[in-house]
Design a protein that fits this description.
- The protein is α+β, with helices and mostly antiparallel strands and 313 residues long.
- The protein has helices spanning 3-12, 16-30, 36-39, 42-51, 55-59, 170-175, 212-221, 246-252, and strands at residues 66-77, 83-91, 97-98, 107-115, 118-127, 135-139, 148-151, 155-159, 185-188, 194-198, 225-226, 257-259, 264-267.
- Strands 2-1-4-5-6 form a 5-stranded antiparallel β-sheet, with no helix packed on it.
């Protein structure tokens, strides 16, 4: 990063107001018809962006700018030609933390953002639509192209020495022992420093813990993990296809989201409510996620043990 670029970067992230301008620009640059309702969330997103470099500061905003709730929705057909939804909702925890990775049918974690003293559904976590995957992230509303969906947040496991320096090399990451952090991603902080952060998401229960007693014991022992904005629950749609197939290349070239340098997640096309969100991860597959191996019947698919890919930039 050149000196002028670094100075511009620091100016952009020096205040919430400047970040608001940047988010506004991202949306307007990608759309001819502006969604004013989408723009109305800019201030909330900017405030969250200003706190994202410190996980401790970020979770302090839970209940103030964002919150996670347990949401139960189930459709029932009545005798009359209509469908109704039974609905229950409760806040996940005071700090937006969760220790249970199992979401029963009908349940989801819903992220809500605060705007004008009202909580608005944003994105949610539930069982992924991908074969053999665990959890995935979905839209809870429509998003226009270029919209900022949220931010990658996590504790730092590697930090560069020089402001504006290049992202860490494979050798530097190996020396920092990041192999045990398969959800890690490289971002720049407000000062332009490259950091590798690890959101440390809630892990599924091990195969040997799948009995009712084992699952209960694991739930008692597993520490609560912040959900942050849930961006680390996005999967890679490519993972279910063999790398030597046309379908793999097609899916890889057309994700619906991307991670920008500052760790913000931006949609690359118009998204609709209940669409699953996917990222073009660029790390080798990891087996950290303990999903059962099942064979996929499609000739272009092969069994995978994980719904995630390691990320390095």
């Amino acid at each position: 990063m050149k000196k002028e670029e670094l100075e511009s970067w620091k100016r952009t992230y020096s205040s919430v107001r400047n970040i608001e301008f940047e988010i506004d620009f991202q949306i307007r640059e990608n759309n001819e018809n502006i969604d004013e309702h989408q723009l109305s969330f800019t201030q909330t997103l900017a405030n969250l962006c200003f706190s994202k470099d410190s996980p401790d500061d970020f979770i302090q905003q839970h209940g103030l700018l964002y919150r996670w709730v347990w949401r139960y929705e189930q459709l029932f057909m009545l005798d009359e030609p209509c469908t109704v939804a039974r609905h229950m909702e409760s806040v996940v925890s005071v700090m937006g933390q969760e220790r249970n990775s199992v979401l029963p049918k009908g349940w989801k974690w819903m992220l809500q953002l605060l705007k004008e003293n009202k909580w608005w559904d944003w994105v949610y976590v539930k069982q992924s639509t991908l074969p053999n995957a665990n959890l995935g992230l979905f839209c809870a509303r429509h998003f226009t192209k270029g919209s900022i969906l949220g931010y990658y947040v996590g504790h730092t496991i590697y930090v560069a020495e020089e402001e504006g320096g290049a992202p860490p090399s494979e050798e530097e990451l190996d020396a920092a022992e990041t192999e045990d952090s398969p959800y890690a991603i490289s971002v720049r902080d407000k000062d332009g420093l490259c950091r590798v952060i690890d959101p440390d998401p809630v892990e599924p229960i091990d195969d040997d813990e799948e009995t009712e007693q084992g699952a209960a014991a694991a739930g008692e022992q597993r520490p609560s993990t912040p959900l942050y904005m849930g961006m680390h629950y996005m999967n890679n749609a490519c993972i279910i296809y063999r790398e030597d197939t046309t379908r793999y290349e097609q899916v890889k070239a057309d994700p619906n989201c991307q991670v920008l340098s500052d760790g913000s997640v931006q949609c690359t096309k118009k998204l609709y409510k209940n669409d699953e969100l996917f990222l073009p991860y660029r790390r080798k597959e990891t087996t950290k996620t303990k999903a059962k191996k099942k064979r996929v019947e499609d000739d272009e698919r092969k069994p995978r043990a994980s719904s995630r890919l390691k990320v390095r930039k």
